[in-house]
Amino acid sequence: MPLPDDLPETLLDLAVPHEDINELTALATRFTTQPELGELLEHAARTLVQDLGTIGIRPEPPTLPEGLGDDLERWFPVYVAVAALPYTRAYHREHGIPDDVARRTLADLGRHIALHHRRRGRGGLAVPGWLRLHFRGELYQLGRLQFQRSRLGERTSLALGEAGLDAEPGDPCLNLHIPDFLGPLTPEACADSLVRAREFFARYFPEEHYRVAVCHSWLLDEQLRAHLPQSSNIVRFQGLFRTAYRDDKPSDGEPVGFVFGDPELPVAGLPQRTSLQRAVARHLLDGGHWYAGHGWFEL
């Protein structure tokens, strides 16, 4: 699995920020001049695409040897994704996935690099394992939202059963995700994404019969309703869902990370320029906590 000769163009296709292209291209020469690194890259890429398309597999990347250097360690998951890219594209073609959907889905790699820039001031991937969903054919960008081919967990399936639906743990469901840097979360944008999702999965994965969508996010914490107007996009987004269950363990880092860019920022210094920033910061300053919400709705 060699890296492509046109690596800069490939990186641009994946929306990698221009400021990172030169560094990634220069570091890539080490995979050809140091055979052991090339073998490590191939092993990692083959592990990523093993049983490509199968839901729920979490391939374990190889342990990186000591002494690689900070730059190569930061960028190694990006090289793995690029090396695996031909297999992902082949999977998309075999399933008839439209080119525009495939392109925008895989361009999420660049968005995550941009998130790392915001958080750390330099390129890299804060959560490299997240991109396995994209490159294994499990997650797709459909308009404003992302939809992951997934399975119901025990607590969500129990909630569905209590609502009168015939549901068991392991039944197919679509796990809904809300990416940053893609504009406001308007009801119109959400409605458009849901229309696309219903049509997309019925057409390209008809054997999986997706009946419900689920979401596990701090955006579903019901406490937000006490801090935001009923007309806010977040409150209206919450209105799509029925509560599956509630967490007892706080997840304060999630809203801090998504709203302010870094989950480890001290609460006392959080800016309060927008209504959402004020809501998240003031709640924490008053001694409160934020929790991940868990919701569902019928497709």
How would you describe what is shown here?
The chain is an alpha+beta fold and 299 residues long. The chain is built from 13 helices and 6 strands. It has helices at 7-13, 18-28, 30-33, 35-49, 70-94, 99-106, 108-120, 132-135, 154-162, 187-204, 233-238, 253-260, 275-285, and strands spanning 139-142, 145-151, 172-177, 212-217, 242-246, 293-298. A hairpin with a 2-residue loop joins β1 and β2. The longest helix has 25 residues, at 70-94. It starts with 6 loop residues before the first helix and ends with a strand.
Largest sheet: 6 strands, mixed
Average pLDDT across residues? 95
Counted by DSSP, the helix tally is: 13
In sequence order, what are the helices and strands, one letter per element?
Answer: HHHHHHHHEEHEHEHEHHE
Q: Can you tag this structure with a few keywords?
A:
single chain, 299 residues, alpha+beta, six-stranded mixed β-sheet, 13 helices, 11% strand
Sequence-ordered SSE layout with sheet pairings:
Layout (H helix, E strand, L loop, with lengths): L6 H7 L4 H11 L1 H4 L1 H15 L20 H25 L4 H8 L1 H13 L11 H4 L3 E4 L2 E7 L2 H9 L9 E6 L9 H18 L7 E6 L15 H6 L3 E5 L6 H8 L14 H11 L7 E6 L1
Parallel strand pairs: 3-4
Antiparallel strand pairs: 1-2, 2-3, 4-6, 5-6
Helix pairs in contact: 1-2, 4-5, 12-13
Give the structure's gist in a few sentences.
The radius of gyration is 20 Å and the shape is globular. The model has no long low-confidence stretch (mean pLDDT 95). With 299 residues, the chain is α+β, with helices and mostly antiparallel strands.
